[in-house]
Amino acid sequence: MDKINIGKTAFINPMPVVIAGTHSNEKPNFMAVGWISSVNLNPPLIAIGIGSHRCTAKGIEESGEFSICVPDASLLEKTDYVGVVSGNKVDKSGVFDLFYGELKKAPMIRECPICMECRLYQTVKLPTHTMFIGEIMGTYTEEKYLTDGKPNLTKINPFTLTMPDNNYWSMGDPIGKAWNIGLKLKQK
Amino acid sequence: MDKINIGKTAFINPMPVVIAGTHSNEKPNFMAVGWISSVNLNPPLIAIGIGSHRCTAKGIEESGEFSICVPDASLLEKTDYVGVVSGNKVDKSGVFDLFYGELKKAPMIRECPICMECRLYQTVKLPTHTMFIGEIMGTYTEEKYLTDGKPNLTKINPFTLTMPDNNYWSMGDPIGKAWNIGLKLKQK
Questions:
Q1: Is B6 inside a domain boundary?
Q2: Phi/psi at A9 (5° precision)
Q3: What total number of domains does chain B contain?
Q4: Residue A6 falls within a domain, yes or no?
Q5: Are B152 and A15 contacting, i.e. CB atoms less than 8 angstroms apart?
Q6: What range defines the domain where residue B76 resides?
Q7: Which of chain A's residues have a Cβ under 8 Å away from the Cβ of B86?
Q8: How far is A26 from chain B (nearest CA, A)?
């Protein structure tokens, strides 16, 4: 066999990059997160995996609320910054221009094309990380990011993260319609 | 405020695209999955969100094992195909060339650049979907996908999925080093 076993290497790439926000020590705090996924359709639930010792983890546990904002490529440096400095040491409440929706402890970032406010739905403790499952209570954007009322990926211009090489990447080109391009194999 | 609330819209984009494999009805079965994330560092745990009624969900529950394979763009049509046809109706065991590692019910796809075999670690039941958390027991690739012994993203050439527009996308260009490019803001 030409396959080689390279050990227990997680390779889930490329990852979406979001900024999780919550209140920690009674102040808005933010952290870059690549471990995020939708996990339920109705109600819309998303899950994020965060190191259990992180300031953001404690903040979500205490407040029961958090935000998920999708940065565009122009926010690359700030996004990385809130991922590398700890809210326990640095006040990150002034890094972005903030706004709130219905939840009072889910600070959202005005500069981000898409922001979601989430209520903590379930907490799953794992050995080194905690998975926070949040219910999306509202999704905020601006007209300029929509086409026919729907989010337009090209206008939003998100970026991705890959590990273990630790690179950020721009999005490429559309290469096919999902739940569609495979139908041509159905007859074969 | 220029922000508008577009309702409870999950926008976690772009998503990685993988193929989850397991044994369903005693045969290898596969399904395209975009709802996937790492969730724990040590041991390496990944989570996938799958509709609870899906054949793959039943298969993972019964076998306690599954695989996660990362397709490259040349497998776009086959990946979409195993996402649109149900294993309850169609035998998908012959779509790919298969191999196994240590686990007997985690069929992996020879055509995929990266494959992981997982043991079911924890199951989280949600209203419409089930989150399967798997521990990675082995990761398989080929020399041609490595540079200095590490997975090379450009050689692997994975693709992404976005919703709700339902498009597949190629990867773009590297735009910065993670846990690094933000450090320049630390002094400001």
A1: no
A2: -100, 120
A3: 1
A4: no
A5: no
A6: 15-185
A7: none
A8: 22
- How far does A66 lie from chain B, in Å, by closest CA? 14
Q: Is residue B5 part of a domain?
A: no
| Facing A84 at nearest CB: one of B128, B171, B182 | B182
Closest of A6, A162, A168 to residue A80, by C-alpha:
A168
Q: Supply the CATH number for residue B68's domain.
A: 2.30.110.10
> Distance from CA of residue B110 to its chain's centroid?
15
CB nearest B11 (choices: A151, A161, A177): A151
Top residue of B6, B8, B12 to mutate, by most chain A CBs within 10 Å, is: B12
Q: Are B56 and A54 in contact (CB under 8 A)?
A: no
pTM of the model: 0.97
Alpha-carbon distance values, A148 to A143, A144, B164 (Å)? 10, 11, 13
Contacts of A73 in chain B (CB under 8 A): 175
Question: Which DSSP state fits A57?
Answer: H
Do the chains contact at A139 and B184, CB–CB below 8 Å? Answer: no
Runs of H (alpha helix) within B70-178: 76-84, 153-156
Query: How distant is the Cα of B55 from the closest Cα of chain A, in angstroms?
Result: 17
What tens-digit pLDDT sequence spans chain A (188 residues)?
Answer: 599 999 999 999 999 999 999 999 889 999 999 999 999 999 999 999 999 999 999 999 999 999 999 999 999 999 999 999 999 899 999 999 999 999 999 999 999 999 999 999 999 999 999 999 999 999 999 999 999 999 999 999 999 999 999 999 999 999 999 999 999 998 65
φ and ψ at residue B12, rounded to 5 degrees: -120, 90
Q: Left (φ > 0), alpha (ψ -120 to 50) or beta: where does A161 sit?
A: beta
Question: From the centroid of its chain, how far is CA B182?
Answer: 28
Q: In what helix (H) or strand (E) does residue A79 lie, and over which residues does it extend?
A: helix A76-84
In a domain, B9, yes or no: no
CB contact (8 A) between residue B153 and residue A160: no
The residue among B11, B156, B183 with the most chain A CBs within 10 A of its CB, best to mutate, is B11
